[in-house]
Amino acid sequence: MNKYILIDHTADIGIDVFGASLQELFVNAAFALFDIITDLSKTEDKIAYKISVSGIDREQLLVSWLSELLYLHDVKNLLFKDFCIEGITDNQLNATVWGEAFREDKHVIKTEIKAVTYHCLSIIQEDHHWKARVIFDI
Amino acid sequence: MTDDKYKIQKIDDYRWRIPREGKMHVEGIVYADEHMLKEIQKDESLQQVINVACLPGIIRHSLAMPDIHWGYGFPIGGVAAFDVDEGVVSPGGVGYDINCGVRLLRTGLHRIEIINKLESLVNTLFANIPSGVGSHRRDLKLSQQEEKNVLRDGARWAVSQGYGTKEDLEYIEEKGCIRGADPELVSDRALERGRTQLGTLGSGNHFVEVGYVSEIYDEEIARVLGLERDGITIVVHTGSRGLGYQVCDDFLKVMINASRKYNIELSDRQLCCAPVNSQEGKEYLAAMACAANYAFANRQVITHWVRESFGGALHISPKESQISLVYDVGHNIAKFEEHIVGGEKRRLCVHRKGATRAFPPHHPNIPDVYKSVGQPVLIPGDMGRCSYVLVGTEKAYTDTFGSTCHGAGRVMSRGQATRSTKGRNIAEELKAKGILVRADSRATLVEEVSEAYKDVTEVVGVVEHAGISKKIVQLKPMCVIKG
């Protein structure tokens, strides 16, 4: 099964993300974010970061998680490739993420993402199938 | 497909009404011609006009300009004014790129003087004005204190540091500094994102474009604006960068809680808001003003480097290039303004998201030299066609809270644009049309290809026919740098 698919949104870009668990859903959403930003085949796991975010519910937690990664990308010019979620509830997430710093001679930036929006945000669970929709502002 | 969801009635050839139904407090008014309306109805943007009409304290209408397209929460191309006592302020009604806007510069140069030097000019601009991930000028470093001065003083800070002249400030909306900015309300994260991004263009649809006046529709007003046929112009389109995105992000979280606290029902979380007069509302507006000031300073610093680039590439002095501001105005902002409602003067909080302020002649907030003609408005088109300079009108003041369109508006998603241009070399195609382009990323060029946008001429035609702006000149591009 696909980790995610792109959905067309006139001005912005959206994703439908899939996972067999809430954990996998969040991992795949993070993967999608950086897969849109860069060519991940050229990115290596050189630096690890510990991340801890919270939210009032699962949906906001997803936005907080992706926004945290985007913030690190913007401020420290980091590209992340691998994500390990060590603990997740509806309101709290702890993770370790791996990636490396952007280098002009090695990496490409396909799309600059400005922000993770709350627009059309949803997380749906049907048995072991989780699906989320997120729209990015670009 | 969308017809069954809402009614739409024709008012005249350029205006459409969405009647008040259900939870709408006011009706929706859409500025578009029939053909455009059909395009607009293909996505969810009119539903978004309706959603905005349901917010508390909205005054008169939920408005959509002809360049409307599907945004997040509020539509892009939307205008909504709220009562300061009963109404709300919403970060989603401003957008992430707070005070993203356009600055138009004129020069003393004629098209034939630069036509053979475009290559050098575009390369110099591209080298001097940072764009792309992590790039910034080493000669512009801000301490946190200095950054807070930027947030408080806006373009005035830039001028005090030698980026441009005091005269420049006269031709910026609010003279380049929105009052009420409180840097202490801006998070450390936002400050961190902003510290290295001042004087950078960013990517996507942001650009610096050198062009010339290709058509004049009103000689007298063009003269007042200092625009002559074949005169070289420069357009700077950028905003508040990561600092603005972070301010929006931070306050969306605040507003999601505030919407619950004040029992405001939301059809989309991105519409979250708080009463204008609440603590949350006031704090957002004070932080938003900081980001707006950062954007004014950003365009001011870039203007300085445009001036240096012209000098360096063309080997001419500032006296010869005579680069000066026509005007600088934002198109993602919420502002307190006075408007006449039901015959009474009222103070309103006007949200413009992808819409431009277009004040009429004799309005107190426009520069003295433009008093007789109205506020200049620059409407950039896509990189292959043209842009327009308009002025605001009395009708805009009475009908649209002094607002007009802001650009062409996308018709294709970025994915569609990429698919439809497969195998084409956009830079070469533009070069064949006499337009040189430098972009940090090749993806930007295909995503920003002409046909991904509505024809700006049609968009401008609607606002002119509807009487909310007057067309003065057309500009054609010669060279463009993009992020």
From TrEMBL, chain A:
<dbReference type="InterPro" id="IPR002804">
    <property type="entry name" value="Archease"/>
</dbReference>
<feature type="binding site">
    <location>
        <position position="137"/>
    </location>
    <ligand>
        <name>Ca(2+)</name>
    </ligand>
</feature>
<feature type="domain" description="Archease">
    <location>
        <begin position="4"/>
        <end position="138"/>
    </location>
</feature>
<keyword id="KW-0819">tRNA processing</keyword>
<keyword id="KW-0106">Calcium</keyword>
<dbReference type="InterPro" id="IPR036820">
    <property type="entry name" value="Archease_dom_sf"/>
</dbReference>
<feature type="binding site">
    <location>
        <position position="138"/>
    </location>
    <ligand>
        <name>Ca(2+)</name>
    </ligand>
</feature>
<dbReference type="InterPro" id="IPR022952">
    <property type="entry name" value="Archease_arc"/>
</dbReference>
<dbReference type="InterPro" id="IPR023572">
    <property type="entry name" value="Archease_dom"/>
</dbReference>
<keyword id="KW-0479">Metal-binding</keyword>
<protein>
    <recommendedName>
        <fullName>Protein archease</fullName>
    </recommendedName>
</protein>
<comment type="similarity">
    <text>Belongs to the archease family.</text>
</comment>
<dbReference type="GO" id="GO:0005509">
    <property type="term" value="F:calcium ion binding"/>
</dbReference>
<feature type="binding site">
    <location>
        <position position="12"/>
    </location>
    <ligand>
        <name>Ca(2+)</name>
    </ligand>
</feature>
<comment type="function">
    <text>Activates the tRNA-splicing ligase complex by facilitating the enzymatic turnover of catalytic subunit RtcB. Acts by promoting the guanylylation of RtcB, a key intermediate step in tRNA ligation. Can also alter the NTP specificity of RtcB such that ATP, dGTP or ITP is used efficiently.</text>
</comment>
<dbReference type="Pfam" id="PF01951">
    <property type="entry name" value="Archease"/>
</dbReference>
<dbReference type="GO" id="GO:0006388">
    <property type="term" value="P:tRNA splicing, via endonucleolytic cleavage and ligation"/>
</dbReference>
UniProtKB/TrEMBL annotation, chain B:
<keyword id="KW-0464">Manganese</keyword>
<protein>
    <recommendedName>
        <fullName>tRNA-splicing ligase RtcB</fullName>
        <ecNumber>6.5.1.-</ecNumber>
    </recommendedName>
</protein>
<feature type="binding site">
    <location>
        <position position="237"/>
    </location>
    <ligand>
        <name>Mn(2+) 2</name>
    </ligand>
</feature>
<keyword id="KW-0692">RNA repair</keyword>
<feature type="binding site">
    <location>
        <begin position="380"/>
        <end position="383"/>
    </location>
    <ligand>
        <name>GMP</name>
    </ligand>
</feature>
<feature type="binding site">
    <location>
        <position position="97"/>
    </location>
    <ligand>
        <name>Mn(2+) 1</name>
    </ligand>
</feature>
<keyword id="KW-0479">Metal-binding</keyword>
<keyword id="KW-0342">GTP-binding</keyword>
<dbReference type="GO" id="GO:0042245">
    <property type="term" value="P:RNA repair"/>
</dbReference>
<dbReference type="GO" id="GO:0003972">
    <property type="term" value="F:RNA ligase (ATP) activity"/>
</dbReference>
<feature type="active site" description="GMP-histidine intermediate">
    <location>
        <position position="406"/>
    </location>
</feature>
<dbReference type="InterPro" id="IPR001233">
    <property type="entry name" value="RtcB"/>
</dbReference>
<keyword id="KW-0547">Nucleotide-binding</keyword>
<dbReference type="GO" id="GO:0046872">
    <property type="term" value="F:metal ion binding"/>
</dbReference>
<dbReference type="InterPro" id="IPR036025">
    <property type="entry name" value="RtcB-like_sf"/>
</dbReference>
<dbReference type="GO" id="GO:0005525">
    <property type="term" value="F:GTP binding"/>
</dbReference>
<feature type="binding site">
    <location>
        <position position="206"/>
    </location>
    <ligand>
        <name>Mn(2+) 1</name>
    </ligand>
</feature>
<keyword id="KW-0436">Ligase</keyword>
<feature type="binding site">
    <location>
        <begin position="205"/>
        <end position="209"/>
    </location>
    <ligand>
        <name>GMP</name>
    </ligand>
</feature>
<dbReference type="GO" id="GO:0006396">
    <property type="term" value="P:RNA processing"/>
</dbReference>
<feature type="binding site">
    <location>
        <begin position="331"/>
        <end position="332"/>
    </location>
    <ligand>
        <name>GMP</name>
    </ligand>
</feature>
<feature type="binding site">
    <location>
        <position position="331"/>
    </location>
    <ligand>
        <name>Mn(2+) 2</name>
    </ligand>
</feature>
